[in-house]
Design a protein that fits this description.
418 residues, mainly alpha, Ribosomal Protein S8, Chain: A, domain 1, Hypothetical protein af1432, 4 domains, 63% helix
């Protein structure tokens, strides 16, 4: 009896399964039929409208945009007005906060060109018999030595690294009883190596302090020269450190490439410690290209004085950070009398040439305008004279940057019945 019940149950299950399978097949046929009808109706609609589905979607969006144009314009205007109200305040906040982050604990070490001596006897030993020791010292160091003032020896050179080598060497010679030409050369050479090591260590320290760790070794050594360089009284190492901290913070706030700004700020004035002709911008760009520094960073250096148009937001930020560091109160100074003397000397150099009527120095000595007597010089001669004056001013005076000489030759003929 139990077996019969089991057989009946299995039979019912099979029947139900067959019935479900039939219903599934029916549903699949219906779904297929519905899809075919849908595609058919879509095709008919496209033929009636003359549009594809993508075109129909575009038309619909366009219609909505036209209807809501006034609303969108109002929203945009409101946002622009809000941005104007808050932009200046936000910019001030960014700059002030960047300056606060740029505050440095670095104590600038200005190049010292005066060495004090305990007595005149030591000065005599430094001078040597018939001045042979002091001549050997000047030749070995490349600096001029002034012995006129009592109690001190003054060292003079436009190259501040040479002055530092000379200062250290002279201090060693004062303590050394064997002051002879060969000993002077030996000490100077030893000190030169010592200063090179100091500069590399300073360059590495500066780069690491601002978070730059991938500079070429030779470039680090050049960067370390900033320790012995000042610009209008501002130590260059301190300026680079301060500029980099300010620029990095601005870049983070604005949301641009921080690494480009960081390295651009660090290297923007590296041309100031590179020997050669031309402005520090030109010399810096040439040096960075030599070491295959990325173009975006080279552009920051090339454009930080607006010599060429800005090519990126990063370049603008380097320019702004440099200006903030140099322009803040107390950052730079220059003796007014020295400033006036330098401009007068520039004008005197130009006026000594035949055919020059007058000369005027502008832009802190970066530009010299020369008035030419048209009766004495023609146009080609005027061009040559301008080049001669520029070369003499650049060689004989310590003018920051490149000197521009503009020679003006004007001929006037006036006729009158009176």
């Amino acid at each position: 009896m139990a077996n019969q019940d089991l057989i009946l149950l299995e039979k019912k299950l099979l029947e139900r399964q067959e019935k479900l399978e039939q219903e599934r097949e029916y549903l699949e046929r219906e779904k297929k039929h519905i899809r075919e009808k849908k595609d058919e109706y879509v095709e008919k609609l496209q033929k009636v409208a003359g549009l594809t589905s993508e075109e129909a979607r575009t038309e619909l969006l366009k219609e909505i945009e036209e209807k809501e144009a006034a609303t969108l314009a109002r929203i945009i205007k409101e946002r622009e007005e809000e941005a104007k109200r808050t932009a200046d305040k936000k910019a001030q906040e960014i700059v002030v906060e960047s300056m606060r982050h740029g505050a440095v604990a670095y104590i600038p070490e200005y190049t010292v060109s005066i060495v004090r001596i305990p007595d005149e006897e030591i000065k005599g030993r430094i001078i040597g018999k018939e001045g042979r020791n002091i001549r050997a010292f000047e030749q070995a160091t490349g600096v001029d030595v002034d012995l006129d003032e009592e109690g001190v020896i003054r060292l003079s050179s436009f190259d501040q690294v040479r002055r530092e080598i000379a200062r250290r060497s002279l201090e060693k010679l004062i303590k050394d009883s064997r002051v002879q030409p060969f000993r002077i050369e030996e000490i100077v050479e030893e000190t030169r190596g010592e200063v090179e090591r100091v500069m590399f260590a300073e360059g590495e320290k500066l780069a690491h302090e601002v978070g730059v760790f991938n500079l070429p070794t030779d470039l680090i050594g050049v960067l370390g020269r900033a320790k012995f360089r000042t610009s209008f009284g501002q130590n260059l190492t301190m300026h680079l450190l301060e500029t980099t901290k300010i620029g990095t913070h601005i870049a983070e706030e604005v949301g641009v490439d921080v690494n480009i700004v960081r390295i651009g700020c660090l290297l923007h004035d590296i041309g100031k410690v590179v020997p050669g002709d031309g402005s520090h911008v030109k010399l810096g760009v040439e040096l960075l290209k030599k070491y295959n520094i990325p173009q975006a960073i080279v552009d920051c250096v090339a454009q930080h004085h607006e010599d060429t148009p800005f090519s990126s937001v990063e370049s603008v930020i380097v320019h702004v950070a440099d200006a903030i560091s140099g322009a803040r109160p107390g950052a730079r100074y220059e003796d007014v009398e020295e400033y006036a003397t330098r401009l007068t000397e520039m004008e005197s150099i130009a006026k000594k040439y035949e055919g020059v009527e007058d000369a005027y120095a502008f832009e802190a000595g970066r530009e010299l305008r020369v008035i030419i007597d048209p009766g004495k010089l023609d146009d080609p001669q005027t061009t040559l004279l301008a080049d001669k004056i520029r070369e003499e001013v650049s060689k004989s005076m310590a003018i920051p940057g490149e000197v521009k000489v503009t020679a003006i030759r004007e001929f006037r003929a006036v006729s009158s019945n009176e």
